[in-house]
Design brief:
heterodimer, A: about 290 residues, Rossmann fold, 4-stranded antiparallel sheet, 11 helices, about 30% strand, B: about 290 residues, mainly alpha
């Protein structure tokens, strides 16, 4: 059974279409990056998966309808939706007590273990902690939950580089195993690239690209070419083209490397390159999946 | 419903209530503060009372209840503190979590919107009375002790005081009225919770505006004022119904035999109100489900 299964998922807010027929299948154990420009529908998609907003179309998360069964679903799903949502009046000790009280899959000793690596005091109020420490606390609480699906919506927004790095390091070393699925959205693409097994590019409420990292490596090639070979390169129908330092970078989707090799230097594009190429101003901005 | 589901529901409910008490400490501090203040006032009065005045009060058979009335007033002030702190709590209960965005944390936990709203409704209706009652018992008892001490120092027999203030009756009467009061006031609190779930800010205005509008129209354009009458009966009824003869507020009850539970619990207005409270809470649950931070 897929962890997330969406068919023709749609969501409209008054005059704006946030999700315009999204199809998704996310299997167990995948680490999926949900990427896209501002307003592409990332947060709406994640909120629909978490049962925070209503939706049209079919959506099942762990076999449940998240909108009608959020309470039950949260036994097996946990999320950090943007930083600084922990109640500011709460003490760290109270947060641990409360989580242990209401969450059947919360392992208090685990949470204490994570907190022991930080300088967060048990009697501190959340409002007294720095933004980075609040995120550490939230992550400690969430990682102590034996969940099947973890959703992170811009979890490191507003954190400095060191906290961002330690956030993802902690997540990777202590949380990831083959039965846990993680969906995360972030703007810091280069920081999470090595973590992901799958990516989904959303653009204007639609899936612009959905593929595993292996597929992406196999499919996309970037060619750096010079003026005299440009016409030949363009004949192979690049999906995007941009000029840099007197050379032209062309991105190809599904073209044999042997055909491209004579045209210039080949390299595998990073996710950030792909993002710009597919969703930027010079890209195709159409379904490539 | 399988065997482990029910205990878990109770446990979650208990933790929900507990967390409300962590967040809103005024729920117990306010009645406690009012009790302390009432004791100070009463102690001051006892200390400054003249021997002659006290002797006269004791000698007057008509003034036999005079001392008890002071204790009733003290209890009344603590109860009212509880009712008011419940109103303030309810105004914030479903709005504050959106203002500080913590709703995203609460919703990430396996606690349904129904559980959340019902546990918040239980705070003014069940938890505050459970806080108020022991405060009343202890503070009146301590006060009687202090007053007995003052009397003995002034050369009066404290037994005279205890003969005139029937504490067990006052406690029992409070115990008798409290469940009724909770159910009678339930539509008011449920309405405020609904306004709190509905409004982005100024929940008080949203809660009060419809009534203000109806009352205004009624007073300006109609010759009779049924809504005004209903609202007045509802707000005053929590005290008038259990503690005055026929709930009319003319004659106050003075002994246990004056209590009339059969009349009290068969008031149609009570059960109509409970039904209305249920509708308001259902609406609040539905609204809370679709709420994200402001």
């Amino acid at each position: 059974m897929a962890v997330v299964e969406a068919r023709n998922l749609r969501k409209t807010y008054r005059n704006t279409v946030a999700l315009d027929g999204v199809d998704l299948t996310i299997g167990e154990g995948r680490i999926v990056g949900l990427l896209g420009p501002n307003g592409a529908g990332k947060s709406t998609a994640l909120q629909a998966i978490l049962g925070l907003v209503s939706h049209e179309g079919e959506l099942r998360v762990l076999g449940r309808d998240p909108w009608r069964q959020r309470g039950e679903l949260m036994d097996e799903v946990c999320f950090i939706a943007d930083v600084a949502v922990l109640p500011r009046w709460m003490r760290v000790r109270q947060a641990l007590d409360y989580m242990a009280g209401v969450h059947p899959r919360f392992d208090r000793a685990r949470a204490e273990g994570f907190l022991a690596r930080t300088t967060i005091g048990r009697d501190s109020l959340v409002r007294e902690l720095s933004k980075g420490m609040v995120t550490q606390l939230h992550l400690a609480l969430v990682m102590a939950i034996d969940a099947r699906l973890l959703v992170l919506d811009e979890p490191t927004l507003g954190l400095d580089l060191l906290y961002r790095k330690s956030f993802f390091d902690a997540l990777l070393s202590d949380y990831v195993d083959h039965s846990r699925t993680i969906i995360l959205s972030t703007h810091d693409i280069h920081e999470i690239q090595h973590v992901l097994t799958d990516v989904i590019f959303l653009d204007r409420g639609r899936v612009a690209l959905g593929a595993t990292m292996e597929e992406i490596e196999a499919r996309f090639v970037e060619v750096l070419t010079v003026e005299d070979r440009l016409v030949a390169a363009r004949a192979l129908k690049p999906v995007s083209e941009r000029r840099m330092f007197g050379r032209t970078s062309l991105l190809f989707d599904g073209v044999e490397r042997e055909l491209l090799a004579p045209l210039g230097d080949l390299r595998t594009p990073s996710l950030a390159d792909l993002f710009v190429a597919l969703l930027g101003d010079n890209g195709p901005r159409e379904a490539a999946a | 419903m399988n065997s482990e589901r029910l205990p878990r529901l109770f446990r979650t409910f208990a933790w929900q209530v507990r967390r409300e008490l962590w967040e809103h400490r005024a729920l117990w501090i306010a009645p406690l503060a009012v009790a302390a203040f009432a004791m100070l006032v009463q102690l001051g009065a006892a200390l400054t009372a003249s021997d002659a005045g006290r002797a006269a009060a004791l000698a007057n058979p008509a003034g036999a209840r005079e001392f008890q009335v002071l204790y009733s007033a003290m209890i009344g002030s603590i109860v009212i503190a509880g009712l008011l702190v419940g109103v303030l709590y309810s105004l914030d209960a479903l709005q504050g979590e959106r203002r500080d965005r913590s709703i995203l944390f609460w919703k990430s936990l396996p606690v349904s919107d129904g559980m959340t709203v019902l546990s918040k409704a239980a705070v003014p209706l069940v938890v505050v009375p459970l806080i108020v009652f022991p405060i009343v018992v202890v503070s009146t008892l301590v006060m009687m002790g202090l007053q007995s001490l003052v009397w003995s120092l002034d050369g009066f027999d404290p037994a005279q005081l205890w003969a005139r203030v029937d504490l067990p009756f006052l406690w029992l009467a409070l115990l008798y009225g409290m469940p009724f009061m909770a159910l009678w006031n339930a539509p008011l609190y449920a309405w405020i919770l609904l306004a709190s779930a509905w409004s982005r800010r100024l929940a008080f205005l949203w809660a009060a505006a419809p009534f203000a509008a109806i009352l205004m129209v009624e007073h300006l354009a109609l010759h009779h004022t049924p809504a005004h009458w209903l609202l007045e009966r509802r707000i005053g009824g929590g005290v008038l119904q259990p503690y005055s003869a026929n709930g009319e507020g003319m004659v106050w009850i003075e002994r246990l035999s004056d209590l009339d539970p059969a009349r009290l619990w068969s008031l149609p207005g009570l059960w109509a109100g409970v039904l209305l409270a249920g509708l308001f809470l259902y609406a609040a649950i539905r609204i809370r489900r679709s709420r994200t931070p402001n």
